[in-house]
Structures are given as structure tokens and as C-alpha cells.
Amino acid sequence: MLKRQTKRNDDSTQSHFASGSRGVTMKLPRRKFLHLAAGAATLPRLSLVASADDYATRPVKIVVGFAAGGAVDIVARLIAQWLSERIGQQCVVENRPGAGNNIATEYVLKSDPDGYTLLLANPTNAINATYYENLPYDFIRDSAPVAGIMRVPNVMEISPLLSAKTVPEFIALAKSKSRQARLCNGRKRHVGAYVR
Asked: How confident is the model over 4-32, as pLDDT tens digits?
């Protein structure tokens, strides 16, 4: 029988396994130890995931908060086709445009949490959470991410004629000269800043 004793150093966790008169000392970085512990804690939940073999017994709806034909809609249709082939069930894209994606988001978050109504979330959801004060939902609390599909980098550009060279400097400048700085809301491509 193995007996485990753990000693914590500043940068690593040291485990000592003793078996009878012999012992083995293993140095394990603290971060790796925590990853392994978290992995071990999630193993019992894998049996719940594995038992979801009967998931797709009816069509799956992917809701998009923008009009058909746009970039988000095209991505949703590609994902729907890919998902349909994998789960053997039809995946339908439903467009619910309006209110900067809030109509679609609210619709999905108020639907039954059974996995058959999915939202193709996008950066607009994060923007709206900070822009609107009285949303009828809390996106972080009320939603559960399923998969990440893509990443798009964003760049902030300002005129080299400005005194601001960093984001905090730009924010301070914008606050001090509010008539010269304008922020616009809307979709991700609209969120930007310019200074006259």
C-alpha cells in the first residue's frame, strides 16, 4: 500500500510516496499539480457526458442575432452543416436580428435549457453586457459555453497627432475632452473610437 505525503515549496509541490522501507520523491511544479488535480476532479463528470449518446433525438436550432447573408449567419450555416453530419440530426439556422443581437440572445436564454436551442454568440454579446444597463438577462450567468469556433483580433488605432500613446492615456484624453472623442456602439466592427 502506498502512502502519499505532500510538502509545498514556493514554486513546486513535492510528493513523497512511501512503500515499505523504500520511498520515491517526485518534484511536480505547482501549476502542473493543480492541472492534474482539476483533471482528476472532472473525471467523474465524464461518465455523465458519455451517457449523452441519445442527445440528438430532434432537430437542433442555432439562433443568429443578425440578418441572413452576413458573416455571423454564414459561420452559423457552416457550423450547422458540420454538426448535422456529426450528430445525425438536422441543424437549422434561425435568424432573429435586431437590437444589436439582444433579441436573439434573450430568446435563447429564455428557451428550455435542453441543448436543442443554441446561440451563435459573438463579441457583440460582451459589448452589449457593458453597454446596456438594463438587459433582461446576465449573459455570463445565464449562458453556458459549448465550443469556441473562431478568434478575431482587434486593433485600436488613433491619430499619431494625439498626445496619447497608450490605452490609459487615450481614455484620460477622451474623458478630459469629451467633445473631441466619440465612441460608437453597435456590432463589433462599429465599436471603435476616433478623435477629431
From this structure: 444 444 444 444 444 444 544 556 676 66
- For the question of whether the overall pTM of this predicted structure is more than 0.70, the answer is no
Report the C-alpha gap between 162 and 196 in whole angstroms. 10
Q: Is 26 helix (H, G, I), strand (E, B) or coil?
A: strand
Same domain? For 167 and 178 the reply is yes
CB-based burial of residue 21 (10 Å sphere; 0-12 exposed, 13-18 middle, 19+ buried)? exposed
The whole-angstrom separation of Cα 51 and Cα 86 is 17
- CA dist., res. 60 & res. 57, Å (int): 9
Question: Of 98, 115, 142, at which residue does a domain stop?
Answer: 142
Beta-strand ranges (E) seen in 20-141 are: 22-29, 60-64, 91-95, 117-119
CATH code, 99: 3.40.190.150
Contact 103, 65 (CB under 8 A): yes
Radius of gyration of the chain from its Cα atoms, rounded to whole angstroms:
25
Asked if the structure places residue 149 within a domain, the reply is no
Q: Both 83 and 36 in a single domain?
A: no
**Alpha-carbon distance 5 to 26, whole Å?**
11
